[in-house]
Design goal:
Structural class: mainly alpha
Number of helices: 24
Largest sheet: 2 strands, antiparallel
Order of helices and strands: HHHHHHHEEHHHHHHHHHHHHHHHHH
């Protein structure tokens, strides 16, 4: 037998043995191994674990099982500690660290110290801690001012300045009212899970897919991204510029939930940050508020001295609709207005000093009569009946000289626009004086 043929024969035998062994191994494999391989594919990922959905929703635990007061009788709660966890999970702490349990509070595994703790509350400034809250139900309808601070009493009652100059609110402020008998939801030693869920919805806080309403990101964080702002600085200047909380937060008194909350827009800043402030604080200095570096020329919409793009010819005729809407921002550019101006005041403050574009040189003598005949209600926006009488009780310029006009010059004008004549005259007391005498039977 040739050597080459012998090599090929051995290769064929070896291949047959490999196939036979593979079939034998598959036949001897345990049934449970096949089931396990089918049930846990390599690409499978564990389902997300939601702490409150497990403990509150599935196990039905009370909130006070984990959230305990900082001291007896206090409404301020502290972070759940090992003592609360060990009530149910003693084995996980005694034998070996359970990663699923540890990572609920610690960012590292195995945990090293308290330094790797997540902030408490867990999702503060990331997801809304309060879900159901209505400012409209809590604000003072009379908007009374605190004589000591000069600010709205209802705002400063709840929003307290913290050590960094920001405004914070906690259980202490809520308890001032909600610890009273009969107040719902109740806050106190006997508060139930139902009381906590009167404001909080922990399941939807952890799992946003359960959230019924969409909360703007800036409301969750409490500030716009990359914006520097100090409430303290503005509060200190409130007397100089006649500012109050609702000067900027105009929509807050009407907000019924976090979903309807709005932070002030930049055009509201223009009401103050214009020529009346020092150079470094005007709207054209982006770095005054924006933390991120900006280059180039500021957008036209940032300046109160450039007409907005929507102020077109159609806007001049129909702007009363926008100016009459609640929260209209006409005051940003029109210095004669204030943020609290009523719709009527917004019109009057401008139109007392600025004539409408239609009031051209020809308006008084040639045009206004036709407009008045079409829509007198529009004229009455600025004018009263006395306005017409002061002019129309005088002889019009077209009637001069009066003798010539009366003698026959009026005929052509009367034939062209008889209705104009009857603005002041009637046939009986004017025309009939002459035309009845010459009329043929």
């Amino acid at each position: 037998m040739r050597p080459a043929f012998r090599s090929l024969l051995w290769l064929a035998v070896l291949a047959a043995l490999v196939v036979t062994c593979g079939q034998f191994n598959r036949a001897c494999a345990k049934p449970q191994d096949a089931v396990a391989a089918k049930a846990t594919p390599a690409s499978a990922t564990p389902a997300p674990f939601y702490l409150h959905a497990k403990h509150v929703g599935e196990l039905g635990l009370d909130c006070n099982s984990c959230h305990v007061a900082t001291k007896e009788g206090a409404v301020t709660l502290q972070r759940p500690g090992h003592d609360q966890c060990q009530t149910c999970h003693q084995d996980a702490f005694d034998k070996v660290n359970d990663e699923q349990i540890c990572k609920q509070c610690h960012s590292a595994f195995p945990p090293s110290s308290e330094q790797d703790n997540y902030p408490f509350p867990r999702f503060k400034h990331q997801r809304p801690i309060l879900i159901d809250f209505s400012h409209a139900k809590h604000v003072d309808p009379h908007a009374r001012i605190n004589a000591h601070t000069g600010m709205r009493s209802d705002c400063t009652f709840c929003h307290v300045t913290d050590a960094k100059g920001g405004y914070t609110i906690g259980h202490e402020q809520c308890a001032a009212c909600h610890s009273k008998p009969g107040m719902k939801p109740a806050m106190g030693a006997n508060s139930t899970t139902a009381d906590c869920q009167g404001c909080h919805n922990p399941q939807s806080i952890e799992n946003p897919s359960l959230r019924k309403v969409s909360v703007p990101a800036e409301i969750t964080a409490g500030a716009y991204k990359d914006i520097r702002f100090s409430h303290q600085t503005h509060a200190a200047s409130h007397g100089k510029f006649d500012m109050n909380c609702t000067t900027c937060h105009q929509d807050v008194p009407h907000s019924t939930s976090l979903a309807t909350m709005k932070l002030p827009k930049m055009n509201q800043c223009g009401a103050c940050h214009s020529q009346q402030l020092a150079l470094g604080k005007r709207m054209d200095n982006c770095g005054s508020c924006h933390a991120n570096p900006e280059t180039g020329v500021a957008l036209a919409s940032y300046s109160r001295f450039i007409k907005p793009a929507f102020h077109d010819n159609n806007f001049r005729v129909n702007h009363q609709t926008m100016a009459s809407e609640p929260g209209a921002t006409c005051y940003v550019c029109h210095n004669s207005l204030s943020p609290s101006s009523t719709p009527q005041q917004r019109c009057e403050q401008c139109h007392r000093t600025m004539r409408p574009a239609s009031h051209t040189v020809r308006w008084r003598d040639d045009v206004h009569g036709k407009w008045a005949a079409l829509d007198r209600q529009q004229c009455s926006t600025c004018h009263v009946a006395d306005t017409c009488e002061r002019c129309h009780n005088q002889t019009p310029a077209s009637h001069q000289p009066l003798a010539f006009f009366k003698g026959g010059a009026h005929a052509r004008l009367a034939m062209l626009n008889e209705r104009s004549c009857f603005t002041c005259h009637t046939f009986q007391n004017t025309c009939a004086e002459c035309h009845s005498q010459t009329a043929k039977p």
